[in-house]
Fold this protein.
Amino acid sequence: MAKKIKLKKIIFSPLVCILFSCSLDYGKQTNTDAKVPEFIFLNSKFSRYENNKKTMTLNSSEIEQYRSDGNSFAKDAEFQTWDSEGKLETSGNCDFMEIESKPEIYSLFSNIHILNYPEDMEIQAENLKWQSKTEQLTSGKEDLVSIKKENVQFQGKGFSASGVSKAYNFESAVSGILVTEDEASPSEQTENETK
């Protein structure tokens, strides 16, 4: 009888080990480079120079840079751009910015505010994408964009603008306000009449 018990123990022990052992697949490796930033910069300011002239600055409370694709993500971003003559061209800010360095695409998210000085235009939105190579600024088809230019304020969805042609377009109906000024307001008329 003792021999049967030992035989059962011998068969049972390897069976338990097989059933309760874990299996690890060492052949499949995950790429953690895409998930973990290579660098994290806190309270940083970056400037870009071309031909010894400043063309862009970016201030951010936090920038994460990833090695796998070279992309960066900025939090609380403030930016400025200058033209080839050194004149301030654009300034703006947003809560988050994704910078795709290889295709030169900048995606802006949440509380976006942009001032374009040569066009005297102010843009506010929640989602915008700037493609540097084609100089195209676009929003999503359903994203609302507000523009203030001189005495006109309007908003619409499906915004696109060309930095080359200086034209902009909305895919949906646009609503807005046109502010006109009379020749003289009543208070100005009273002042002018009393002099």
Notes: The radius of gyration is 30 Å. Confidence is low (pLDDT under 50) at residues 15-24, 184-195.
